[in-house]
Amino acid sequence: MVKGNTAVKEYPKSEIEQLNDLMDEYGEEIKRLVYTYTKNWQQAEDITQEIFISAYNNLKDFREQSTMKTWIYRIAINKCKDYVRSWNYTKTQLTNTFYQRSNGLSPEEEYLQTEQKEQISRMILQLPIKYREVIILYYFKEFSLEEISTTLGINLNTVKSRLRRAKKSLESKIEMKGGF
Amino acid sequence: MDNLLKEMKNDFENYLAADRVFSEQEKRKILNQAKYSSSKNSRRLYFPKIISSITLVSLCALIVFLILNLSDAGENSKPATLHKETKVVSEEPIKTLPKYSDKEILEKVSFLQSNIGLGFSEDKVINLLGKDYMEIDNSDSESGSVKQIGYNFLVSDSADQLKISNETDVKSILNRDIGVQFVIGFSNKSEVMWTTIRFADGDSVYMISKGLNGRMIERIHSDTKVLGEQDNLDVIRFTLTPEEEVIYEKFQKDLDEKHLKDLNPISIAKLYIQSQLDSRNDVTYALYTDREEFVQWTKEEDEKIPESHRGTIAQTLTAYNNIDTGKFITVGEIEGYIQYEASKNTEAKSGFRMIKDEDGIWNIAFMPIQ
């Protein structure tokens, strides 16, 4: 970089600065992604924290063979899966269900009163994780099939078949609700 | 289905949350933790290096010493001078983050007050607040607790993360090096018995204590002076009795005035003051009179009042100081006021105006201080 006649050397960023940039770039979307697994914002906050600390501790291992995006998503998804397997998740899910507010409407009435896309969003969150994650990564996080394959550590054909089955499952749920 | 899903990106994100979910505060918390963990790691990494350097230098010295001794054997030689190159291992100082604002500090205080209740299990507390706590010596406890733990929140320097003891760290709190110090006492059933929150607002340090005796907020430090019982003129504190605390907890959840029906006017005024201290503007407004002829502004208008116009903790505590020992005087059927002595320095007494609503419950008059 040259400013006037003085050449200014660009020093490499410290790891803390890299972490800061990483959070500026991906903090919001990663926390939202985590929520799609936990369905609980408090847990999402805790796990997001773990993800970025883990990324910070592994910054040296980041090889530019994958993009920063797939790298951080991979860490995030692994953390989320650890959480989903944990005892705490089962307990929280029960608690959340217990405290879920009811608006006193029958499912049919509720269905008629809520927006179509809101209904589909809810259905996506109700899909099994293996289908949910491919839908979210492909349609909402704009990952290519290859990137999904790298991030989830599964082969390309599996990604394709999961995506197909996920859509099929959504379609049948919509049909059960009477279609749109 | 394909097209529908492709069009849904924004709808899906809005369904998850309409506003941003990853806050600046959260980011700083992570940065702090990262610095804290790296300072621990760097210490850990330096130790083996130091030990191996020392061992290596000692070994070299021994070999040189032996060689010199052997070659000088039989001669009157001068003692060999061994030059050791000392390598100074300097740890890069941990940079500090910008300090947290008073607004962020008060938000944290409010979070702790609303989310950590008496009777909570230790596991639940740790689950909610994390594992960066310190166990504190409980041997002098007069409260019946068998264990105490402390957290430092919103620290600007990770080295302060676990700087916790029984004493209030006034200097660090006042400098905002530590935003909030939170100590919890547990019973022998590992349940929360009491909590204390220490924090600064303006140039004062406050302590909010919650326990079986209710809730109390007091100013424990002002400017450069630590306050004690001898400084009666400066001590300001505000308490809720256990009964008032229970009703306040219920009322703030649903704003239903039925909870207030058995309370005397002074207790209702105290709930109003507590809501101001907690910045619960919705609760404050709900406690104003509903009588149309006395309403001076709507809830919507109230919501637009900026926080900077609502007064600091010090202003609230000073304005309503001693209200709990005041006297309620009725003026006609539906009006009354609490007469109290806010300051011992002034001769005039203060008045806090109240209106009896149609349901028979005394509520607060708009602009109650006369």
Question: How is this structure best described in words?
Answer:
- The complex is a heterodimer of chains A (180) and B (370).
- With 180 residues, chain A is mainly α.
- Chain A folds into two domains: 13-99, RNA polymerase sigma factor, region 2, helix turn helix motif (Rna Polymerase Sigma Factor, Chain: A); 107-180, Arc Repressor Mutant, subunit A (Orthogonal Bundle).
- Chain A has helices at 15-38, 41-57, 68-85, 87-99, 107-113, 116-126, 129-140, 145-152, 156-176, and strands at 2-3, 6-7.
- Chain A has a two-stranded antiparallel ribbon.
- In chain A, α2 crosses α3, α3 (68-85) crosses α8 and α7 (129-140) crosses α9.
- The model of chain B is unreliable at 73-94 and 229-233 (pLDDT under 50).
- Chain B has three domains: 1-95; 102-199, no CATH class; 245-369, Nuclear Transport Factor 2, Chain: A (Roll), CATH 3.10.450.
- In chain B, the strands form two sheets. In chain B, strands 1, 2, 3, 4, 5, 6, 7 and 8 form an eight-stranded antiparallel beta sheet that branches. A four-stranded antiparallel beta sheet of chain B has the order 9-10-11-12, with helices on one face.
- Chain B has helices at residues 2-7, 9-16, 24-71, 102-115, 122-129, 170-174, 242-254, 265-277, 281-286, 299-303, 313-319, and strands at residues 134-136, 147-155, 178-186, 192-201, 204-211, 214-222, 225-226, 237-240, 327-331, 335-340, 350-356, 362-369.
- In chain B, 36% of the residues lie in helices and 22% in strands.
- Chain B has eleven helices and twelve strands.
